[in-house]
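Backbone-to-sequence.
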């Protein structure tokens, strides 16, 4: 557990004034407008706009080459923008050198100095800023206690585990009390179990200290578990930004639906559109989806893409009372410890179901015919497009 005393006695650093200013005005701490970066004829980032508020954990999520690390580097000042503006608490920092931006950074490889002890690695930003010895000693002690490494203060990075090195990098980034913390895939080098532990620990520290974090990852589970908001990126642009629930349950495009989590994406013809509900067909049977927006009569006969998450697909007797109920043949079945995953062929359409229930007598096997379905409120309209 992180000591409450650390939070209460946390010494104000250079970031305190910027945070107070942004909070007092109820304005974003970070404002990004029209930010773009090109390398020759190649566009790495294409006029991005977004805000980050005090205490927010914003994750930049996307595949390799989507522009998320480029965007983080621009905020950090490691690279300069081709166009656009970055503001910190209302001040333009677009061309300010990295060391004067009052921003902490944790890199993917941690970038620890191998010849320095844990204590000296953590102290480095304070020495660079010429903080006096007494204050420096107090802050180092607080930082070591914060990440629970006070008993390893005199070890070198090579004598630490991956998780311990990650915590040293975090302490070093926080010791000068930056206005905002940037993190570039900080957990990617850790094994699965340690990564799960560090996700919880990092989120707890962020909430206890009310840190403002912009975090880069390609791992959907990390983004969903840790974030206040997620910005899904593709080809240098933000495709959607919203809470984890919004991104997962109500994606605004086929790309977001398919990239974040497992997805059944059904392309079906609209039979009727009445009272805000679309009636579509699959395997000769109708199902419904809420339109969530006004529809033109011309929508009838168009194609719609509908998202059904596998965990919302019910199978067997549980599906028979649902308005959306179909019959299919099991193609595959796999055991995942806390769930079973099925792939089911419904007249040429492959649907995935993920069940967490216990099969008391018989587990459905490949080749068997089975009923499956979902509730109307678990169907989400992703797109409508002409045939």
């Amino acid at each position: 557990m992180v000591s409450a005393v650390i939070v209460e006695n946390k010494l104000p650093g250079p970031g305190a004034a910027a945070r107070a200013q942004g909070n007092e005005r109820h304005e974003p701490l970070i404002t990004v407008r029209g930010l773009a970066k090109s390398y020759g004829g190649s566009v790495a980032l294409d006029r991005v706009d977004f805000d980050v508020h005090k205490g927010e954990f914003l994750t930049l999520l996307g595949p390799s080459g989507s522009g998320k690390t480029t965007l983080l580097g621009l905020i950090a000042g490691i690279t300069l923008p081709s166009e656009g503006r970055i503001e910190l608490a209302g001040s333009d920092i677009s061309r300010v050198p990295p060391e004067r931006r009052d921003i902490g950074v944790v890199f993917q490889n941690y970038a620890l100095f191998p010849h320095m002890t844990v204590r000296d690695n953590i102290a480095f930003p304070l020495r660079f800023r010429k903080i006096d010895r007494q204050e420096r000693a107090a802050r180092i002690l607080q930082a070591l206690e914060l990440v629970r490494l006070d008993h390893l203060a005199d070890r070198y990075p090579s004598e630490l585990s991956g998780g311990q090195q990650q915590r040293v990098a975090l302490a070093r980034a926080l010791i000068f009390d930056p206005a905002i913390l940037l993190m570039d895939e900080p957990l990617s080098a850790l094994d699965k179990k340690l990564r799960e532990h560090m996700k919880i620990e990092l989120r707890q520290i962020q909430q206890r200290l009310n840190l403002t974090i912009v975090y880069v990852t390609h791992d959907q589970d990390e983004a969903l578990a840790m974030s206040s908001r997620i910005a899904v990126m593709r080809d240098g642009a933000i495709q959607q930004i919203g809470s984890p629930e919004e991104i997962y349950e109500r994606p605004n495009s086929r790309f977001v639906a398919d990239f974040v989590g497992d997805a059944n994406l059904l392309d079906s013809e609209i039979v009727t559109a009445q009272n805000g509900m679309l009636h579509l067909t699959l395997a000769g049977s109708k199902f419904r989806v809420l339109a969530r927006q006004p529809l033109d009569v011309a929508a009838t006969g168009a194609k719609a893409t509908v998202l059904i998450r596998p965990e919302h697909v019910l199978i067997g007797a549980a599906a028979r009372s649902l308005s959306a109920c179909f019959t299919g043949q099991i193609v595959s079945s796999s055991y995942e410890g806390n769930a079973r995953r099925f792939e089911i062929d419904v007249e040429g359409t492959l649907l995935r179901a993920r069940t967490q229930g216990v099969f008391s007598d018989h587990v459905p096997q490949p080749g068997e015919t089975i009923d499956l379905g979902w509730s109307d409120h678990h169907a989400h309209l992703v797109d409508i497009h002409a045939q």
